[in-house]
Amino acid sequence: MRYNLCTISFRHELVSFRELFRYALDTGFNGIELWGVHAKALLRQRGKELGGMLDEMFSYGLEINMLSDYIPLMGNIPMDVLLKEWQETVQAAKAFHTDKLRIFAGNLGSQSLDEKDWELCTERLNILCAVAEREGVYTVVETHPGTAADGLDSTLQLLRQTGHPALKLNLDFLHIWESGADPLAAYERLKPWIVNIHLKNVESRQWLEVFSPNNIYSPSGSRRGIVPLADGEMDCQAIMKRLILDPTRAPVSLEWFGAIPFKILKSELGWLNGLESDLKLEKVKVTGS
């Protein structure tokens, strides 16, 4: 399987881009999911050096798997302003040689949207998809609470109503589980659109609010309930067994929002590689018998 390091995990660390990609390489990651905040800062401040850094990174076989950013999709923002911001974001994705640009589908939950809201959301998404597609970039929405893609049914509605072939999905298993959907059943329904997967876990449902944006992006926010993949209430082992056995699976990005990300992400990748090795061994034993 292909595993990617999310630079958002280091949002409160004093660490350089080169240090991160060397850590990813040494730890065994296949690529990096670059947070839009980091991407745009690199372009502003290190633009002249960026080509050399990326060439060095690519020479080791690492890739920028996806750029994860935000766009004011809904609300009263004029379309020309939205398009200008979107075009700049698409160019940022191209600068980092990735064909996947992740956004959220607005900032309101699906139950808060009326018919006009759905029309506005999907019409704007369709336009954004067309703009990005011309540059060879997929528009990727994420399953996330507080957006139009906050559950299985709402995500399917968003994808189908938008109806653009360049609209794809980043399946965040924790958030689809948070919605009450069975994560593996949701995976099967959404699989035709999935181009990336997010993995993280929580000690129990009572702590899910720890991942709310106002808390998780704050350096003083609570981290109570954030646990490694193997230790949470969502059954990550069952999810990984399904993914490992699926030859058409999308790459997986590991999101860690807690403390000591260097240590934890190395441990998480070790656990995932161990699962994969165990499954291969089981398969050999069954075949051999």
Automatic annotation (TrEMBL):
GO molecular function: isomerase activity
Domain spans labelled Xylose isomerase-like TIM barrel: 21-273
InterPro entries registered for this protein in UniProt: IolE/XylAMocC-like, Xyl_isomerase-like_sf, Xyl_isomerase-like_TIM-brl
Keyword Isomerase part of the UniProt annotation: yes
Keyword field: Isomerase
Keyword DNA damage: no
PANTHER family per the UniProt record, alphabetical: HYDROXYPYRUVATE ISOMERASE, XYLOSE ISOMERASE-LIKE TIM BARREL DOMAIN-CONTAINING PROTEIN
Name of the protein in its database record: Sugar phosphate isomerase/epimerase
Native species: Paenibacillus tritici
